[in-house]
Design brief:
globular; binds iron/sulfur cluster; about 350 residues; four-stranded antiparallel beta sheet; eight-stranded mixed beta sheet; alpha/beta
């Protein structure tokens, strides 16, 4: 099956450009991004901080920072383009069709409200249910996200819970109206490693059980491995490589993807070996280069990389990338997959 055209996608982004106007310049935070996610599928959106991942997710919520504006492209949620929708209509979409899980549960939760009231708020807004029905649904969803003794916890305030339990509450808030799409933006970065794994397992299980589409945004390639069905690698406002997770880890082509994977610490690495980090910084997105945006940091750059933007296209079935000198293309695909 053509991985680019599943029967019915929950999310279809086409040619999205989201710019942020500052006092003296305009930052091209998202610069021509196209993505799709099918029901029950997890797409990992990966890249360094500041590459435009979060602004892509926030564009789908239409919750942009001051000066932020979608200047071009379409964002279809269950077939409806939300870009032209007024804010009043977007309030019906947020939390109902699409919801978001942020990185830090402490800033996502209101410290003055009980967790039961916060989780039930979306139900009261979107489903117009009464207090009794909302409480029952909140207890159900707290059970679903693995909150121990939900009936005792429902009246707790966020400060009475551990970081892991608070993040379970944030997930419960995101799921209570059973949205078609959940955007999980660095959902475990603020948690310790064992809790990270539990929360990612939980998201995965809920995604399967509820057939939600998930956009998993992270800077950490290790989080993507084994969790996402497909991966889109983003650099300096553009998608530079997209493939199934299996293909990407076996036959990554873009030199930026290769560098990201190389930067993951390995258990079999010599303890005295220096950890690899990508040299330099991403380009200024107020004035990005016309050619390959990674060229100034790439070990494989040649003249053409500094003069021409490489075409982003499907070079292999289901595998898209934009690189003049892709990794491993001289090796037969079967050999590279060993
Ligand atoms: S196009 Fe050139 S500079 Fe850019 S990633 Fe590929 S090899 Fe490196």
């Amino acid at each position: 099956m053509d991985e680019r055209t599943p029967a019915a996608n929950v999310l279809e982004i086409d040619g999205l450009k989201t710019y942020i106007r500052l006092s003296r310049s305009t930052v091209r935070a998202v610069d021509g991004v196209s993505l799709h996610i099918a029901p029950g599928e997890t797409l990992g959106l990966v890249g360094e901080s500041g590459c435009g991942k979060t602004i892509t997710g926030m564009s789908v919520m239409k919750l942009l920072p001051p000066g932020g504006r979608i200047v071009e492209g379409t964002i279809k949620l269950n077939g409806r383009d939300i870009v032209p929708l007024p804010d009043k209509t977007m309030r019906e979409v947020r939390g109902n069709v699409v919801s978001v899980i942020f990185q830090d549960p402490m800033t996502s939760l209101n410290p003055t409200m009980t967790i039961g009231d916060q989780i039930g708020e979306a139900l009261r807004i979107h489903r117009e249910v009464g207090d009794k029905e909302a409480r029952e649904r909140v207890l159900d969803v707290l059970g679903l996200v693995g909150m121990p003794r939900p009936a005792e916890r429902i009246n707790d305030y966020p400060h009475q819970l551990s970081g892991g339990l608070r993040q379970r509450c944030v997930i419960a808030m995101a799921l209570v109206c059973e949205p078609s799409l959940v955007i999980a933006d660095e959902p475990t970065t603020a948690l310790d490693v064992t809790i990270q794994s539990q929360i990612l397992d939980l998201l995965d299980e809920l995604r399967r059980r509820l057939r939600m589409a998930v956009l998993l945004i992270t800077h950490d390639m290790g989080v993507i491995a084994g969790r996402a069905d497909r991966v889109a690698v983003m650099y300096a406002g553009k998608i530079v490589e997209e493939a199934s997770t299996r293909t990407l880890f076996k036959r990554m082509r873009h030199r930026y993807t290769e560098a990201l994977v190389e930067a993951i610490p390995r258990l079999d690495q010599e303890t005295s070996a220096e950890l690899y980090s990508i040299p330099g910084l991403p380009p200024d997105l107020a004035n990005p280069p016309e050619a390959c945006r990674f060229a100034a940091r790439c070990r494989f750059d040649t003249e053409i990389c500094h003069n021409e933007y490489p075409a982003f296209s499907e070079h292999e079935p289901g595998h898209l990338y934009a690189c003049h000198h892709p990794a491993g293309v001289d090796e037969p695909v079967e050999a590279a997959a060993q």
